[in-house]
């Protein structure tokens, strides 16, 4: 698929360091899936609803997959997850929780609210490469994702 038409991964991540590590891992693994980053939950919702700075559809193509940190400023990850999974236009986008929290309550609530997976952020470079490779191979190699246009209907 051409990069300009391939639906991106939406990464909702407030840590610049974590973002740089993910970009490095993608490059190291020669993964060319486009990644769009939102730094907080409010910005992610603006992106998904194509509001504010994302009001032009070409600035906010519908993501194929969302990697969502839980602990965000203002609108937290659980609130974003609830909004996505309770919206008819967004609910079919797979959402993977991408967090440092191993709190059983966070895990339970995430799945109750419709998370498709829950991954603890890797704490080593080797593990990061392994997890990013696995995500890419599974979600963009084996999984069959629902077809959708690249913007809201």
Automatic annotation (TrEMBL):
GO BP: phosphorelay signal transduction system
Any single Pfam family the record assigns to this protein: Response_reg
InterPro entries the UniProt entry points to: CheY-like_superfamily (IPR011006), Sig_transdc_resp-reg_receiver (IPR001789), TCS_response_regulator (IPR052893)
CDD domains in alphabetical order: REC_Rcp-like
PROSITE patterns per UniProt: RESPONSE_REGULATORY
SUPFAM superfamilies: CheY-like (SSF52172)
Highest taxon, organism lineage: Bacteria
Sequence ranges assigned to domain Response regulatory in this UniProt record: 8-136
Residues with PTM 4-aspartylphosphate: 69
Keyword field: Phosphoprotein
Protein name: Response regulator
